[in-house]
Amino acid sequence: MIRRLCIIGVGLIGGSLARALRKAGVVGEIVGSGRRSEHLQEAVDLGVIDRFDTDAAKAVQGADMVVVCVPLGAMEQVFRTILPALAADAVVTDAGSAKASVVNAARAGFGKLPTWFVPGHPIAGTEKSGVAASFAELYQGRRVILTPLENTDPAATAKVQAMWEAAGAQVQCMGVEHHDDVLAATSHLPHVLAFQMVDTLARMSDEDEIFRYAAGGFRDFTRIASSDPVMWRDICLANDRAVLKMLERFRSDLANLAEAIRAGDGAELERVFRNAKAARDRHSER
Amino acid sequence: MIRRLCIIGVGLIGGSLARALRKAGVVGEIVGSGRRSEHLQEAVDLGVIDRFDTDAAKAVQGADMVVVCVPLGAMEQVFRTILPALAADAVVTDAGSAKASVVNAARAGFGKLPTWFVPGHPIAGTEKSGVAASFAELYQGRRVILTPLENTDPAATAKVQAMWEAAGAQVQCMGVEHHDDVLAATSHLPHVLAFQMVDTLARMSDEDEIFRYAAGGFRDFTRIASSDPVMWRDICLANDRAVLKMLERFRSDLANLAEAIRAGDGAELERVFRNAKAARDRHSER
């Protein structure tokens, strides 16, 4: 049971968590914070939060659970702002997509890595953003990764885990660097490829005609290119090490594939395509 | 009105066309042909075709419309086989995804480019294949491109156009090379990228774990990597000129993007991502 939940950054991710916990009946009061009072008022009007304060230091007062759902580039300043105002029993977690970056921001913003800070990342979301797109079922059956550090209080980790489980998610713990590698492969690389491909096509002279002949497969493939550009700019910069590693690997494989096409090497093309289809079919069954 | 329709290659594309024309009431008899009699019998059992002959020369006899829906690599042999058996009033068209390749196959298989041959390409399909996946609505509101040549009989083109319109499609004509460029951009490039990305991930040592954390965006992005590997091998080989041109363009843009990440150039990343999102959102509204 959470006495008072404070969500800093009430968009799709924070708003859906608030809705889910409210629906599960595991939270007393929900306080929101963020930069724009009109967005926070919308969250109140939608029943997502009970009240708000644009001053994050005021919003966290008396909260025993603080979830920071702001862009990666804004984490450090939020941590610095809330530190003096946190309740003695407060646990702080976040929803950032790149964990080494958040850990660095916590070290800088809090002045050290506190035992009550639990880095976290819900593997969920849609290409939409904003509190109006939030819904209580977003985390049902989805995975949440926590990356507690050596000095993190196990009780704090357990409290954050219980919160996400109440929202319907499955929680796993792993190391910070491993999280960043896995997410670079499954999320950051596909987003970068989709953004870049649509950009490449959009800069061609016959753009209008090209998109006119785009079929369903293209629409599925490029859906994630509709995601928030600023959020993805921040993710690429925050997880640059792992994203660059995956990009190098992919670019090398793609160069080989282009060479196979140039050489008319049908056997190699078929090997790559068969391997991909087998993996896609095998894993999408689960 | 089509007196007798012969579909050579009764899978998703040919089967869906047969179903649509039957439903529209614009076809007398539908004869199927293909390599495997068990697949053709399945098409009869499903009511997609009336009868079949695995010998394409026998199947086309008396047909006034012949639609060749076989893999690109099999076109030439089919053209060669059916030529002596075609009715005097027969119009032949195809559904191949790369038109220069089909035109070359027609020139070789028919011995010349006949006035009654109309190269065509329905921009439709799913990642599934086979007649069991076919459905009458596949072409509703979808586009079909015809690439008639200089010597193509306008009456033949008109008959093929009327057929696809009866199946619910919008028909446009364009040049062979232009078709291949447009399709390389909107279809062949995304398929190659999706196949290659899933292959890259599947060859990583922690494959199982990586796919476990794949979320909805990944599933959308990679759906087309579930497509038929042999068909896509053939498309890459048949449209190598245009596919390589698009791949070069994309690889150059991706190298620039990687350099922007390496340099921490957030403004450049945001420019690319914003441009992509704007194009995706603008064109997906239509």
What is the gist of this entry?
Two copies of one chain form a homodimer. Chain A is globular. In chain A, helix 4 (75-82) runs parallel beside helix 5 and helix 7 (176-202) crosses helix 11.
Estimate percent helicity of chain A.
Answer: 40-55%
Provide the CATH architecture of the largest domain in chain A.
3-Layer(aba) Sandwich
Number of strands of chain A: 9
Overall geometric form of chain A: globular
Number of helices of chain A: 12
Question: What is the spatial order of strands in the main beta sheet of chain A?
Answer: 3-2-1-4-5-6
CATH class of the largest domain in chain A: Alpha Beta
Could you describe the largest sheet of chain A, including whether it forms a barrel? Answer: 6 strands, parallel
The first-to-last residue Cα distance of chain A is 32 Å
Number of domains of chain A: 2
Structural class of chain A: alpha/beta
Classified in CATH, the superfamily of the largest domain in chain A is NAD(P)-binding Rossmann-like Domain
| Rg of chain A computed from alpha carbons, rounded to a whole number of angstroms | 21 Å
Structural account:
2 copies of one chain form a homodimer. With 286 residues, chain A is an alpha/beta fold. Chain A folds into 2 domains: 173 residues, NAD(P)-binding Rossmann-like Domain (Rossmann fold, 3-Layer(aba) Sandwich), CATH 3.40.50; 107 residues, 6-phosphogluconate dehydrogenase C-terminal fold, CATH 1.10.3660. Chain A is built from 12 helices and 9 strands. In chain A, the strands form 2 sheets. In chain A, strands 3-2-1-4-5-6 form a 6-stranded parallel β-sheet, covered by helices on one side. The model of chain A has no long low-confidence stretch (mean pLDDT 95). Chains A and B meet through helix 7, helix 8, helix 9, helix 10 and helix 11 of A and helix 7, helix 8, helix 9, helix 10 and helix 11 of B.
